[in-house]
Amino acid sequence: MSTEDSHRPAIRPALELALADAGGSGAPRERFAGLRAVLLDELLAGASELERTRSGYARPVAVALAVVSGHAPSTSGSSSERAAPGRGGGALISVAPVDQALRADPGAAGERAWLLVAALVGAMVQAVVATSPSEPAGALERSRPERDRVPSSASARAPDLRAGALGDWLALSLPVAVADSTDAAELAVLAFEDESAGIDRLRARAYAVPSGVLEGVTDLRAPIGDDHPLRAAEAVARVGGRPADESSVAEHEDVVLAMLGASIDTVRPHGEQDPSLRAARRILQRLAGMGKWGGYHTDIAHLARGFAGNERALAVDIGERLIDAGLLVAKPSVGQRHVFLNPRRAGDIHALIERGVVPAGLELPAN
Fold this sequence. Notes:
- The chain is α+β, with helices and mostly antiparallel strands.
- It has two domains: 3-247, no CATH class; 266-355, Arc Repressor Mutant, subunit A, CATH 1.10.10.10.
- 36% of the residues lie in helices and 15% in strands.
- The protein has eleven helices and nine strands.
- Strand 3 (162-166) and strand 4 form a beta hairpin.
- Helix 2 runs antiparallel to helix 3 and helix 9 (275-289) crosses helix 11 (346-355).
């Protein structure tokens, strides 16, 4: 996109105009089909925008949210696999212009698409917490300094987030009290503005839509893989962090790893006698525990986190070797160098973490 385009006033998304004409989230049933058609067009346009150098400058990328009473619509699988209903049997559901394959493959979304999703997860968690009396106070009710504090143990809970699809697009679900149905969607819209504000070269907006517009969301179930980044994003939000803000994610890393049951000692890489192999396993396990696959990256300086002073140089060296071997992928990010786990090498990464199997191409320094 040209500089001229990036400064041109943004077009109001068609979904925004259609909702205004139909009466917003309270639109009558006869308008649902038309709004759904507009939403699908908007998602297609949003996906195209996410491929641009600057996304949403000419037309903001749109996401949609609604609360559905009872079980999430059109779920499949056993009852244990379905999206858990809220205390009154409802779910806050969102749809984003991101490939639904992300729920199984972290590599299915680019960096900006992933950050959009991470911001959406953060907004949904805030809204659910704020409208649920049994939850600890949410970030919407805290001042900025307070929202970065580690909350009470009440937030340390099993993940509730479910992922599904609306056609080709990613859908997300969190249980919510039905009595707060309209509040949850509207609060998520407000929270999304804050959560997405810091994403580089992205302008996005969230819209509350009638529940019937999201009919057809299917296969809502837990993201596939214990180290899926969607799980980490929910956990970061649960402890008051911002899933789309890398510095906030890093700040809450230890408590998130504990919440997810993915501490760096899970497969005891500390018991490894070879210091180089031990460092490689620790680095990869910590990254996997935080879901740092694909677009969810971290500053390369964080690879040495948790290593003693005399081991930090070794950790830095091992990090570079993991990049050279293709287990980690490096990319420049706002003047820094960031890394993420290569989803295409997941088998090799897990074999190294769990069994200490060194893949071909990785050369570790000799003792």
